[in-house]
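Lecture notes, unit on protein representations.

Consider one protein chain, 233 amino acids long.
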Amino acid sequence: MRSGLLFLLTLLALAGCSGVREPEPPAARKEKRAASAEPAQARQDDRPVIVAFGDSLSEGFGAEPGKSYPDFLQLRLDEAGYKYRVVNLGVSGDTTAGGLARVDSAISMKPAMVILELGGNDGLRGIPVTASRANLEQMISAFRKAGIEVVLAGMTLPPNYGAEYIRPFEQMYKDLAKRHQLPLIPFLMQDIALRLARHPGLMQRDGIHPTAEGNRIIAETVFGYLRPLLRRE
C-alpha cells in the first residue's frame, strides 16, 4: 500500500503546487443543495437514512451525475439486501467549520447513520489542527446527542505539508474515534492508493478527486466499515 499511497500523495502535492483547489461555494449554494437533497419522492421513503456528510469527495465533484461514492454505496446496499437510503450531503470546498454550520440540516433528516468525511480542505488550507478537531468534535457530539450513529472517515495530506503538520492531522481522526468510540475509516481513499500505481485512471486530472471508478472503490471501502453496523429488516 505504501507505494500506492506515496503515488497518490505525489499527485495531491502536484495539484496543490499548481494551485488546484476545490471551489469554495457561496452560502446560497450550500442552502440550495441542502434544500434539494431530499426530493419529494424520497421523502415518502421510510427506509432508514444514511447521510454522507462531507466535502467534494462525498459530493462526487467532477464525476458524472449518479457516479459519486454515495451513489455507488446505495447500489452496494441494495445489492446486498440492506434496506437503507443514502442521502448525499457533500458540498465541494467545505471545511469542518462549514460542516458545523450545516450540521442541523443533517440532523433534521433523522438519519440512522452519518458518514462524517470532513477535514481535507482544512488541511490543504493549513487551518490549525486544534480548530479542525474542535469542529469535528462538536459535530460528532451533536450527531450522537440526536441518537445518530457516526462513522468517521480519516484523511491524510501531501508530503509537502510537512511531518509536523501531517502527524497531528492524521492523529486527530484516531483520537476522536477513540474518544467517542466511533468506527474509523483510517483513510477514505485507502483502496484507491493500493491500486493507483497500476490504474491511474482512478483519479481525475487534478490529482485530488476520484473518477467514477474511483468512487466505486471508495463505496466498497465504506461498505466494508458500515456492514457490521447495518440491520436487516
